[in-house]
Structure formats: C-alpha cells, structure tokens
Amino acid sequence: MKVGFIGCVQSSSRALNLLLQLEPGLVEIVGVVTKKSSEINADFVDLGPICEANDIPYHYEVAKERDKSIDFMRELKPDVIYCFGWSYLLPEELMKIPPLGIIGFHPAKLPQNGGRHPIIWALALGLSETASSFFRIDKGTDSGPLISQEIIKIHPHDNASTLYKKILNASDIQIRRFTRELANGSAYFREQNHADANYWRKRNRDDGRIDWRMGAGDIHNLIRALHKPYPGAEYHVGDLVVKAWKSSVSEAKHPTNIEPGRVLEVVGSRVLVKCAHESAIWLEEFEPQIALHRWQCL
Known about the structure:
There is one protein chain. By secondary structure, the protein is of the alpha/beta class. It folds into 2 domains: 199 residues, Formyl transferase, N-terminal domain (Rossmann fold, 3-Layer(aba) Sandwich); 92 residues, Formyl transferase, C-terminal domain (Methionyl-tRNA Fmet Formyltransferase, Chain A, domain 2), CATH 3.10.25. The protein contains 7 helices and 14 strands. Strands 3-2-1-4-5-7-8 form a 7-stranded mixed sheet, sandwiched between helices. Strands 10-11-14-13-12 form a 5-stranded antiparallel sheet. Strands 6-9 form a two-stranded parallel ribbon.
C-alpha cells in the first residue's frame, strides 16, 4: 500500500518512524509534506531529515503556495494519505487524490470536543477522559467517519506532557492496526453522530493567565493544561511575568475574608496563595524564581 504523509509535529515524527518500522512490503511511504518552521506549533518537528535518511521524497509547504503540495501528492499517486499534526483544513482537491482517502488524527473523544487545542482544553476543563481518534477527513472539521478510537483516562496528576505521552502510546497501537486493515481491505469506518458534536475554540494568551479569583481547582487545572510543551500558565508579581509549571490544591479551608491573591505561606520554594472562597493553591514549580520579599507584590 502506497502511503503519502503530511505532518510537522512530534506526533507526526513518531507516526512516520513507526510506519518505517512495519514489516517489509506492507507499506511504501511515497512522499511527505512537512514544514521548515512553525510559529503556531509548540511541538514542531521538521520531517525533512527523516525523509533524507530514508530516501523519501518530501516537499516543504509554503502558506501561499499550497497548490504545490497538491501537485506533489498527485504525482506520487498514493493509495492513502496520513495527515497527523497539521494545523490547516485540507482542500477538497487533495482529498480526491487517494482512493482510500486521507486519515486524520485528533486527540479527543470525537464527535465531542473537535476543534482547537484538545489536550489543553481537556485538562483545563477538568475532564476525566479523552481519546485518541483517527478518522477519514471530509469537508468538515474533525467530522469524518472513525477508523479507530481509544479512550484515554485522565488522572488528577496528569499534565499536558504526561497526557500527550499516553495519547501517543495509544496511537502507536492504533496506527499499526488500522494500517494493516487498510492494506488488506478489512478496515471499517464508523460514522460519527454529529448531533453530539461540539467544537473547542482557539485559545489565546489571556486564556493562560491565572486569575486568583478562580477556585484553586480551576487554577490547578490551568497550570497542568499548559505544562510543557505548551507555554505555561502565567501570572504577575509586580511587573514580572511568572510561568507556573506545577501546583497542588491545599486541602485546608482558608478564611473567606482573606482576599484572592494574598500569599498565605512560603515553605522553601513552595508558595501558598489564596484563591476564591475558602480555597488556596500551592505553587510548587515556577520561573523565574522570585525573592521572598517580592511575593508581597502579588
């Protein structure tokens, strides 16, 4: 089976390497579309070096010349295209090229939670589970029929980094399975129930700013959602912008007459900050480190 490949993030690199390790004769990677750089992908990976090491033709897409990517794939005549880790909707002209369609990837429990920033939103909203979903791309957004979906449990200690690893581990197994099914003609696609669909919006920097008037649990969720590779939840200490990387919710109840944002206690490098109502949060990892007297400016 001839496979075309599109991607430019960590999951793309991992999937491409996985395909190259499958049993000989199952698939042939006929070409790859990737990018030289990206300002919007925190986990960006240029797939060019992998292609060069494996003698795979590749093309660097340029925003104003996307027709060249279509021409590149059309000449290769792939049976299927895998598009994992791409931030743009694909043109219908590209979808018509492979007989088996284009397989996309979305780390959410489709048809729920399509759209942008699924790992961040799942954690920020305190969800208890998400999914690793593969589907045939159609004219909509994350709306095509599913070829594979695995539920991923989200534990209270998970952050963006650990959840990302869980999803990638599940996706490895899924890719191996449905690639074999596509190659031997046994793949099954299940239509999504669009009545259950919702779409998460694009986040901006304001969504990552800590407001101490939030509950401690909500702030904790925000901090773990924006853990690396993402840019970190942030707050101000005077005129200094601080990134928070790790936290825990205080189990104690704190007086409601203490205003949100007040530093209640400093123990070594840990700082206890009052939040909404009776809640407070321990900030355990943050940068830059701040001298004790500066916390009074919080």
